[in-house]
Write a structure and sequence with these properties.
Length: about 500
């Protein structure tokens, strides 16, 4: 099932020379960024390579095997046509205006033409920039592996996200709580523009630049807004809707982002900046995955409201262009309907209900309540539920619950509802919406431990599994099993 590493020879023509660079972001002009080159990374080596994404991007088959790619994607060699830059943005962090931030350790290499459409390529961890503040501009191996695998896991789950092409590592030391080693992740997305880019130009009264940015985003990514009576209000509404759909997908799959600051919110509604994220093990609605988040601002069950709070920040930032406050407020209204609708649809599919009914809300609420009171493993519950039919026994599901009576009452309600659904249709829907594999913290830890000893095979295996998480992948049961007891003591903070 898992293809072996392909050690094919490097292509005779360096693929770097055939990339078609378009560099759209640079057209915004120098107020938006500083051009600079990456700081070299000492003696880099491959940690993880995403050959599937390389193919989707139309890169030459063996480019990711080449010395040119290793050097270019570690920041040691400039690809011809690339114009690297660090962009400036600001943002609200943990509810407080943080002022100017910016790409403190990321570098946009530029934008290339691909079969997926234009894609920006960004290095993360490639050295300090004018926006690094007190930081060293580096990323450590641990957090780079986490970002690499989780962004591909999210993509495999059908959740909008930035993607990751590869991770390169180095033995160069990096100081965090302890000494770790450096790594660089290569990320791709149609755009890395964040809410914080808009806040930056709005709060600093650079309204000409604010308008240029909004026009760029509309023209490139939201062209339908151009025809609206108020294009900037339409943009706000469209962004709200995409964000609502993204967060509904997070909630349905049990994903906690951990740091939903406005500088970590993509204008395209993509999951971005993977830090102290976590997929829920036992279902706990108030779960806080980020050990630096002492107030629980970004707890699992707060994410929908926090995303909405962030919408108000970008609404505020766009006000100089919208002029009428009422129009901005009206544009923000749609979040309140789009989010619950999107979550309802996702949960209905997880329950195997192809025909959405408003009455199903009660069943959905009851399911969440039951999972919380029994602290049931979220992913395993849903996957086992795929073989629950109105006729079959429910032993595999029932044994997950210590409170058998509550389970029986719920199972009765569920059986009655699914009795109206064709079994084949139900099973098919459920198997496509309840993953067998999610990127649990302990799986990350195991792959990181091995990678620190230069064994990257676990990173590769996880990548393959997480890219097709709804498939069975026989022989890989341990990756779909309950977390070990030590998983509960893993602490992930903002330090990365
Ligand atoms: P994050 O919490 O990772 O999204 O980062 C928030 C801000 O801090 C962004 O402007 C980052 O570029 C910056 N930052 C985080 N870590 C570093 C680092 N090691 N060096 C420089 N800047 C950093
Ligand atoms: Mg960030």
């Amino acid at each position: 099932m898992i293809p072996a590493l392909d050690n094919a020879p490097a292509s005779p023509i360096p693929a770097g020379h055939s990339l078609k660079w378009t560099n759209g972001f640079t057209r915004l002009g120098p107020d938006f960024y500083t051009e600079l080159e990456a700081r070299p990374l000492a003696s880099p080596y491959w940690v993880g390579r995403n050959r599937a994404l390389a193919r989707e991007l139309g890169l030459q088959e063996h480019w990711l095997e080449s010395a040119e790619a290793l050097a270019a994607l570690s920041g040691n060699q400039l690809l011809p046509g690339s114009k690297p830059l660090a962009s400036v943005y600001s943002g609200h962090q943990f509810g407080v205006w943080a002022g100017q931030l910016g790409d403190g350790r990321a570098l946009l290499l530029g934008e290339i033409e691909t079969p997926l459409g234009p894609q920006e390529i960004q290095l993360k961890g490639s050295g300090s920039t004018p926006y690094s503040r007190m930081g060293d501009g580096r990323a450590v191996l641990r957090s780079s592996i986490r970002e690499f695998l989780c962004s591909e896991a999210m993509h495999g789950l059908g959740i909008p996200t930035t993607r990751a092409l590869c991770v390169t590592g180095s033995d160069a030391p990096v100081r965090r709580e302890e000494i770790e080693t450096a790594a660089v992740v290569t990320r791709t997305a149609p755009s890395f523009i964040r809410f914080g880019h808009f806040e930056h130009f709005s709060y600093s009264n650079q309204h000409v630049q604010l308008k240029a940015l909004a026009d760029y985003v509309i023209d490139r990514f939201y062209p339908a807004c151009r025809d609206a009576r108020q294009p900037y209000a339409a943009l706000l509404e469209a962004v709200s809707e995409r964000t609502a759909r993204m967060v509904a997908a997070w909630q349905a799959v049990g994903f906690c982002h951990g740091v939903m600051n406005t500088d970590n919110m993509s204008i395209l509604g993509l999951t971005i900046d993977y830090g102290p994220f976590q997929f829920l093990d036992a279902f706990d609605p108030g779960h806080i995955c980020n050990h630096s988040d002492h107030q629980g601002r970004y707890a699992y069950n707060k994410q929908p409201n926090m995303a909405n709070w962030n919408q108000f920040c970008i609404g505020q930032a766009l006000l100089p262009l919208i002029e009428e406050q009422d129009q901005a407020l009206a544009a923000l209204e749609s979040y309140k309907t789009v989010f619950p609708k999107a979550l309802h649809a996702r949960m209905g599919s997880k329950l195997g209900l192809p025909d959405e009914q408003p009455e199903d809300q009660e069943l959905i609420d009851n399911t969440f309540r039951l999972l919380a009171s029994n602290k049931v493993d979220y992913t395993i519950f849903w996957r086992r539920l795929c073989s629950f039919t109105a006729q079959s026994g429910h032993e595999a599901v029932r044994e997950l619950f210590f409170d058998g009576e509550s389970f029986n009452a719920w199972a009765l309600q569920y059986s009655e509802r699914i009795a109206t659904v064709d079994i084949g249709l139900q099973a098919n829907l459920m198997l496509k919406n309840n993953p067998r594999f999610v990127f649990r913290n302990h799986l990350g830890e195991e792959s990181i431990r091995a990678a620190k000893l230069k064994d990257f095979s676990k990173v590769d295996t996880l990548l393959q599994l997480l890219q097709s998480p709804f498939e069975e992948h026989p022989g890989h049961d341990s990756f779909a099993a309950f977390p070990p007891a030590w998983a509960a003591s893993i602490e992930i903070s903002c330090s990365s």
